[in-house]
Every structure is written in structure tokens, then in C-alpha cells.
Design goal:
about 220 residues; alpha+beta; Heat Shock Protein 90; 5-stranded mixed β-sheet; elongated
Length: about 220
Amino acid sequence: MNPPVRTIGRTQDPIGSLKSFLEGEEKERQRLSRELHDGIGQYLIAIKMKLESLLYSDPSDMKEQIKRIKDDFDQTVEEVRRISNNLKPSVLEAFGIVYALRNLCVETSDRTGIKVGLFFKGNLESLDMTIKTYLFRIAQEALNNVVRHSEATMVDLRLDRKLDDVYFSISDNGIGFTTHNVDAAAGHGMNNMRDRVKLLNGTIDIKSAPDKGTLIMIKIPAF
């Protein structure tokens, strides 16, 4: 017999729902801890080291080094903004999943020069808010990975609801990587996406190869 599937937004099993909620909260804390450590933490360490190196620098190079430190501060501020938006995507609550994703794609394209396409189909706005929030966060994580690691010039997001399932794919034309190393690729943010997909009782499949780009395919139940 197949194990029972946890449903979102239903209260038929209060104890099971509470357990799932607590497990989800703990997963989110772990994910946030990783983002703070791998993102903001690393930026601050780099800034600290550069500031300390100023004590021993040639005064003629001081101006250029201060400029680089300023750039690091700008990146840190951007990382704080990204994490803050992850915690509460207000645009999603106000305007819905399609508008929020479109806005995210336009913002990413304007900021990076990467051509970002969005394709959607089906009744997406009637999805549970938990599903829409996690889909939005997965998209944020995936685009952030593309910007940081892929060297891609194009990326496509496709979101399609078919009957009882939602299909979400992210593909890019970047440098790719060997998939046997993906379990150790915390720097690529794959763990964060996998955690979120798991919390939605979904599946995630990652296909990539050097110089062949990357394709991430996600399937989750739409209830």
C-alpha cells in the first residue's frame, strides 16, 4: 500500500498536519541558515580581509582598493535584499504568481543582461498560497544560480498546470556541470530547491553536462 500523501491546506489529520508544519519550519530554518552562511557570511568575511589588508597597502593603491570594498558592500546589500524578499514575497501576495514571476524575470534580465523568458499555462492562481510561494522561491533560487554560476545568456522558465499536477522547468544555455557532483553542489543552491520540492511532496530531476547547459524539471501535486 502506498503511504498517505500530505495535503496542503486541509485539516483531516491535525496531528499529521502539525508534524508536517513543524518539519517544514525546521527545513526553512536550515535553508535560511545556509543562505546566511554561504551568502552574507562569505561577503562579510571577504570585506573584513580586504579592510585588514589596507593596513599594509601602498597608499597609491588605496583608492582602487576602497572602490573594490565598496563593490563588495553593494553585493552584500543586494544579497540581504534577496534573502528578505525570499522570506516574504509581497508582490506574490498582492498580484499573484504569474505577475510575480514575470516581474522577477524582468528584474533579473534588466540587472544582468541575461535574456529571461517566461511561459505559463493552466489555472495557476487557484493554487494554494503555500505552493505558489514555494514555486516563486524556487524560481528565485534557480535564477540566482544561473546568474552566479552558469555564464548563460538565455534562460527559460515554464510553468504548466495539468489536472492534479504542476510542472515547472528552468533551462539555461550556460556552461553546465557534471550531474554526479550535483549532490555536493550546495553552492549551486540545489539543496534549497530540493528541500522545497520535497516539502510539497514533489519530484525534481536535474540534467546537465559541461558546455550543454542545465535543465531542472519539477513536478508537484496541485492540491
